[in-house]
From TrEMBL:
GO terms for molecular function: phosphoglucosamine mutase activity. This is Phosphoglucosamine mutase. Residues 8-142, 163-264, 271-373 form the Alpha-D-phosphohexomutase alpha/beta/alpha domain. Its EC number is 5.4.2.10. It is an enzyme of class 5 (isomerase). Keywords: Isomerase, Magnesium, Metal-binding, Phosphoprotein. It holds the Pfam family PGM_PMM_IV. Belongs to the phosphohexose mutase family. Residues 398-453 form the Alpha-D-phosphohexomutase C-terminal domain. Its cofactor is Mg(2+). Gene3D superfamilies: Alpha-D-Glucose-1,6-Bisphosphate, subunit A, domain 3 (3.40.120.10), Alpha-D-phosphohexomutase, C-terminal domain (3.30.310.50).
Length: 462
């Protein structure tokens, strides 16, 4: 059982003790703290917050607690119901709301849920505001509204179409070229809201032949919901069996995206961003950003188009901050997260699908041949589970000393560069684990680098 408070929101498992899990008491407490921060910033006017959720089993329960708490604070609520993270993000400025809350634990298993907190621009709140929220929640000093000033709760189910309409209107989305390609697509919707949103988008783009796997929005995920190769064997086999042109996989809240080639092989979640960036940078010159755990292939593509590449700390809020600082035209994360800044500053699998298919539609060949345009780098993604007594700073300090003669970056955990290869060690924002990512031009070499560092960590944990 877990409760994790970070820049990625308030995340925890459902069921268990107050303060140790995402219990109803904790949901109310952190929602009240968030609402209190909004009220402090604008004490003299009526506030409005957009709320949406993914397809998790606990979604209706958590949503009812969140919307009722906001109402009790005197804040009006626009409840989108079952939605996606990027849809809520675009709804906040469209509604001229003061903030938003997305109820999703993203790629975590079904027993998890979370409160992802947005500012008035529909972007994740800053780390500074997050710390303020935790302090208010700890003090539990909330002031609720009198009965005649309770907030109104309004249901609004129009935003899927508004999101799709905005994608169709985006200048670099070529609906005509996509429709002309007459693609056959298999979608793994992982029993969440992507089962509704992704097919609707594909139809709007002119893709008529769509087969949806795990299409019931039950929250009983048919497999591990993180869209990684090990979890996509069903999608891969169905793409081959149905002679489809490609497969599409999203996570439960539809902010991560990856593709399967026509032969069942993986396009690679790292290369989702690389391919979309290649397409965008071929149309408009500019810079690109990804977090430092992402493939170096993005840097190479950006330089090819005459732009500059900048790494950021891991975490969407950090990527967005760096994108703004360097005026990037494309950015994201190697986990299949696409951020198109003039659309909105948030990872969005839906605009990612439209841009990727536009790129594929202009490519003279299959998705597998498109993948062949990009280099074959391999990232080995590993993790070590931690207990509460682990002294992570001292572990990293000893490893930093051991590799002190190599180029090091300690902006976010520790990144070590070995000639053309690298390894990145960092504490997860969302789980009690150390993530160990390494990249090389050979898969075995990447795995060996990761294993070596994992051994270093384990020796120092002892």
């Amino acid at each position: 059982m877990s409760l994790i408070k970070s820049i990625s929101g308030i995340r925890g498992t459902i069921g268990g003790k107050t303060g140790e899990t995402l219990s109803p008491v904790d949901v109310v407490k952190f929602t009240a703290a968030y609402g209190s921060i909004l009220k402090q910033a604008a004490p003299s006017r009526k506030l409005k917050v957009v709320v949406g959720r993914d397809g998790r089993i606990s979604g209706p329960l958590v949503s009812s607690l969140v919307t009722a708490t906001l109402s009790a604070l005197g804040i009006d609520v626009i409840d989108l119901g079952p939605s996606t993270t990027p849809t809520v993000e675009i709804a906040v400025p469209m509604e001229k709301a003061d903030g938003g809350i997305i109820l999703t634990a993203s790629h975590n298993p079904k027993e998890w849920n979370a409160l992802k907190l947005l500012n008035k621009d529909g972007e994740f709140i800053s780390a500074e505001l997050g710390k303020q929220l935790l302090d208010i929640a700890a003090a539990e000093n909330f002031e609720f509204a009198p009965v005649d000033k309770l907030g109104k709760i309004q249901q609004n189910d129009t935003y899927m179409q508004k999101h799709i309409d905005a994608i169709l209107a985006y200048p670099l989305v070529d609906k005509e070229a996509i429709a002309k390609k007459k693609l056959k697509v298999v979608v793994d919707a992982i029993n969440s809201t992507g089962a509704v949103f992704v097919p609707a988008l594909l139809k709007a783009l002119g893709v008529e032949d769509v087969l949806v796997l795990n299409s019931e929005v039950t929250g009983n995920f048919a497999h591990n919901p993180e869209p990684l190769p090990d979890h996509l064997s069903e999608l891969s086999s169905v793409v081959v069996k149905e002679k489809a042109d490609l497969g599409i996989a999203v996570d439960p809240d539809v902010d991560r995206l990856c593709f399967v080639n026509e032969d069942g092989s993986m396009f690679g979640e790292e290369y989702t961003l690389v391919a979309v960036a290649d397409y965008i940078l071929s149309k408009r010159k500019g810079n690109a950003v990804s977090n430092m755990s992402s493939t170096k292939a993005l840097k190479e593509v950006t330089l090819k188009h005459g732009g500059a590449y900048y790494p950021s700390a891991v975490g969407e809020v950090n990527v967005v901050s760096k994108m703004k600082a360097v005026n990037a035209v494309i950015g994201g994360e190697g986990n299949g997260g696409i951020i198109v800044p003039d659309f909105h500053y948030g990872r969005d699998a839906l605009i990612g699908i439209a841009l990727f298919l536009s790129h594929l539609a202009h490519h003279k060949g299959s998705i597998k041949s498109l993948r062949g345009v990009y280099p074959d780098y391999f990232i080995s993604k590993n993790k070590i589970e931690l207990d509460k007594s682990t002294d992570l700073p001292s572990i990293f300090a000893r490893i930093k000393e051991k590799y002190s003669k190599l180029p090091l970056n300690d902006e976010d955990g520790l990144k070590i560069e070995f000639d053309e290869d690298w390894v990145h060690l960092r504490m997860s924002n969302t789980e009690p684990i150390i993530r160990i990512y390494s990249e090389s031009d050979f898969e075995v070499k990447a795995k060996n680098i990761a294993q070596k560092l994992m051994q270093d960590i384990k020796e120092n944990m002892g």
